[in-house]
Amino acid sequence: MQDNRISDAVIHRLPRYYRYLSELETAGIERISSSRMSHEMNLNASQIRRDLNCFGGFGQQGYGYQVTRLKQEIMRILGIGSTYRVVIVGVGNIGQALLKYRHFTDEGYHIIAVFDSDPQLIGRDLGNITIRSMNELAGFVKENKVDIGIISVPKAYAQKTADELVSLGVKGIWNFAPVDVEVRRGVSVENVHLSDSLYILSYHMRDKSENN
Amino acid sequence: MQDNRISDAVIHRLPRYYRYLSELETAGIERISSSRMSHEMNLNASQIRRDLNCFGGFGQQGYGYQVTRLKQEIMRILGIGSTYRVVIVGVGNIGQALLKYRHFTDEGYHIIAVFDSDPQLIGRDLGNITIRSMNELAGFVKENKVDIGIISVPKAYAQKTADELVSLGVKGIWNFAPVDVEVRRGVSVENVHLSDSLYILSYHMRDKSENN
User: Fold this and answer.
1) What is the value of pTM for the model shown?
2) Closest Cα to residue B90, out of B168, B182, B185, B178?
3) What would you report as the CA-atom Rg of chain B, rounded to the nearest whole angstrom?
4) How confident is the model over B154-202, as pLDDT tens digits?
5) Cα distance from B59 to chain A (closest Cα, Å)?
6) A153-210 residue pLDDT tens
7) So what's the ipTM on this one?
8) Shortest Cα distance from B173 to chain A (angstroms)?
């Protein structure tokens, strides 16, 4: 199993396979052909076969893929289902939305603390978690071996927050501030740019209106 | 200019070029070489040259790209800077976060109304916009020629909301409910899956910890 050879493009398609296979599993479907996947996922069938071959062939000619086995292998590669200790820094709308979206917890991403600098928010309960002061961040992160820090602070504080989390030993930064934060080698970061998909949407709208 | 030949992979990189070129422009930089872009964007230089050649060569050998001209061309292709009339359906945390993120407005995406079914929310002001009842949706969308509908309702209502918006003439759906909504031919949809980038993050974390 040589995960390192998997290209970035394939990695970025894996979450989609994971979501699709999860739906099949929920629907009680045990086997799936690449041609049906191709039709339902709107991806080229040979692309699907190439993608899935990257991490071992789970398909048999004329027999299809085993849904649960393939899903579990994709989860293993993505690291879904391992246990992560997660904190959220910045409890604005995005921070609160992520906290409420409990699906993450089922997948192993446990939000164990949330922090904000606003005295109006500190001490308040959100769900069953109490908003802590930023003054507690360093102590908490070190003591609780936090794996992932979610950054949802204003743009101007994002890099500083990332630097602090990394210096405290956090290995992954999931950043929602609208700026790319940078981290040192050995640490991972995903900068989420919500507006990118809005631009893609308007591209497709323009494209369709011109070709009608 | 043959936009139709641009591959999906290139389209998905364009927002990133757009963000990068905007930063250069703000910094007063007029020309940029593909090798410097390569270094700063962490993309292969020949990849960059191929991407940018897809929509006309703006670079000259040894001279680099004209930042503003290239940015404007990418904006034109993505449809940024045109005027879009946008409504938000569902004013939970994500809906509120998008409403507050005023950057969209500067780029032509004008949020002209927001809707919710919660009687506690209807009539309340958010920023300088009043939350309307879902009962007003049909009348409003038809009267105001809405281009884009943002869906941030619970998962169970997402497809129904998309169907209604499309039947009222909306041509683009930007969906934040954690389910893929489907639309008829001629309409565009972007389904945003926030957790996908969390999975990619945990992939990279696992990958780095295994290779250390």
Assistant:
1) 0.88
2) B178
3) 20
4) 999 999 999 999 999 999 999 999 889 999 999 999 999 999 999 999 9
5) 23
6) 999 999 999 999 999 999 999 999 988 999 999 999 999 999 999 999 999 999 888 8
7) 0.92
8) 8
Residue of B14, B200, B206 with shortest CB distance to A12: B200
From B19, B79, B204, residue closest to A188, measured CB to CB: B204
Chain center to CA of B100: 15
Written as one letter, the residue type at B113 is A
Query: CA dihedral in degrees (B23, B28, B34, B35; nearest 10)?
Result: -90
Q: Do A93 and B100 touch (CB under 8 A)?
A: yes
Q: Is B188 an interface residue toward A (CB < 8 Å)?
A: yes
Q: What is the DSSP letter of A208?
A: H
B3 vs A: CB within 8 A: yes
Give me the phi and psi of B174, to 5 degrees please.
Answer: -110, 105
Q: Which residues contact A110 (CB under 8 A, 6 or more apart)?
A: A83, A84, A85, A86
Contacts of A80 in chain B (CB under 8 A): 199, 202
Return the structure tokens found at B173: 């759906």
- Quote the CA–CA distance of A142 and B23 in Å, as a whole number: 35
A66 and A29 in contact (C-beta within 8 Å)?
A: no
CA-angle at B189, arms to B184 and B190, nearest 5°: 155
Q: How far A92 CA lies from chain B's nearest CA (Å)? A: 8
Residue that has been written with the tokens 């086995």 in this structure:
A69
Q: Cβ of B196 and A78 within 8 Å?
A: no
Whole-number Å distance between alpha carbons of B147 and A62:
45
First to last CA, chain A: 47
Please, how many CA atoms are within 13 Å of residue A53, restricted to the half-sphere of its CB? 9
HSE-CB for B91 with a 13 A CA cutoff: 25
Is the Cβ of B201 closer than 8 Å to some Cβ of chain A?
Answer: yes
Q: Give per-residue burial for A184-193: e unless 16+ CB within 10 Å, then b.
A: eeebbbbbbb
